[in-house]
Specification:
Layout: E1 4-9, H1 14-29, E2 34-39, H2 42-47, E3 55-58, E4 61-65, H3 71-78
Parallel strand pairs: 1-2
Antiparallel strand pairs: 1-3, 3-4
Length: 80
């Protein structure tokens, strides 16, 4: 199976860190292999069309923005 690429977009604030932790937990719960990147550069975040952080992309597709989603909400997104 291919490695999943997850990007957490945000300044590194507490909510961004929580979203990253939730993504790691969701990946672990499903026994998947994923590369998790944290993008903090505001220009890079804006290039992805995100104006509200924290946000998350999975394999380049924006799946969440403006709030922290739980590991339980992330898991089905990883299985698509």
């Amino acid at each position: 199976m291919n490695t999943i690429e997850i990007e957490i977009l945000g300044s590194g604030c507490k909510k961004c860190q929580q979203l990253e932790a939730n993504a790691k937990e969701a990946v672990a719960n499903l026994n998947l292999t994923a590369e998790i990147l944290h993008i903090t550069d505001p220009i890079e975040i804006a290039k992805r069309g995100v104006m509200s952080t924290p946000a998350m992309t999975i394999n380049g597709k924006l799946v969440s923005k403006g709030h922290v989603i739980s590991p339980e909400q992330i898991q089905p997104l990883l299985q698509r």
